[in-house]
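Supplementary material to the annual report.
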Amino acid sequence: MAEFRMPKLGADMSAGKLVAWRKQPGERFERGEIIAVVETDKTAIEIESFATGVLEKILVEPGDARIPVGTPLAIMAVEAGTLPPAEAPRAEAAAPRAAAPAPRPAAAPRAPVPEGARAKASPVARRRALELGIDLAIVTGTGPEGRVTLEDVEQASSARPAPSPAAAAPESRQQRMRDAIATSMARSKREIPHYYLATTIDMAKLDAWLEAANRERPITARLLYGVLLVKAVALALREVPELNGFWIEGRAAQSEAIHPGVAISLRGGGLVAPALHDADKRTLDDLMAAFTDLVKRARVGSLKSSEVIDPTITITSLGERGVESIFGIIYPPQLALVGFGKPVERPWVVEGKVCARKVITATLSGDHRATDGHRGALFLDALGRLLQEPEKL
Amino acid sequence: MSTTRDRILRVLGDVVPELEPSEIKPAANLRDQLDLDSMDFLNFMVALHKEFGVDIPESEYRKFLTLDSCVQYIESAKGAQPC
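Predicted assembly:
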């Protein structure tokens, strides 16, 4: 048996509203299937299962109460071996395991970890402890050499008194979204020593390529400028991977997967930045289809939990509103943010002659704890180079 | 029978569900009025293509600046019923 708990779907999330169950008691679910819908301060999110099993019992019915992160919502029987192994790092807010191992008998006590020392723990246990707000130093490890395991963390969590559902917030949805953004942005500015870099990129080749490509395509298959920028960012991150990942427990943890979160403004105000998964590996057509789908779902409030949790970097653009450059605030615990301004015509020197050229300002906000400006400069250099060869994107 | 203008407004309403047709100023910039981004605008072009069967090259997008100019373009392309 395992508990399905209110997941943490963002650095700024402390509670969520259970909107609906997509599975009923006795119903089987596959890994990746939607099992519930949770509304955060920002949007409604479809929660995917990270294991295969059967929903045994519902503990909380959908309603208006704001339920604290970590509260058990249901009991489920999970098939052995279907929980994912410890994988690449995800955001501290991440990894809402749909099913977590059930409590088991307490293990023999061991000496506490000395103050200041780093408790031995598996990566998955560390992330789970962060999600649940548990100090690893006080968890009894039952793994080899006293290593704290995922089961130890779950047991420590279940031994705590269950939090009671918070009263429904009286504020409007928009106000709660502003509050959520305020919390994460204030945290970012408080904790992350940002550095900012900017470069101007000649867009003539990309512009000509895109115009020619779209001329040949039916209207339903045309590409947007922004999709090429996302792909170029993703490929540049392969060259400078230090910018792709999270700051977890005082260390930068690179992510092998490249999942750019693309900032999407919502009509009622506010924004979300869900992931375009594996953007470096996808074709432009595939990315365009995924981006179209993502924008549509973001605006009707049907994002999936993996899309909210997984972004390894954020890409934002205010170019369409006439802004020429943007120096964004990193979304914690990510390590960087890339901004694009409006493509504008400027005098540009080509082979010794001044001519009118369409250019764009690309910016990088980097976490100075994780990288130095030199690595950031290499990233922007790679980005500019990749955009000169649009046919290779 | 729906006029071209009505059909365009319906199409626009599918792209921007919050749209209040009565609040659209026919001669004012649609992007500014409705805060359309490039994805919205592309979706609008695709939806017009499907609704009216007209082909809209990317180079012609600038002719869809206002509701009035949309009506004008579609009618000249299809000879649709005047509004």
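The interface with chain A takes residues 16-18, 35, 37-39, 42-43, 45-46, 49, 55-59 of chain B (CB under 8 Å).
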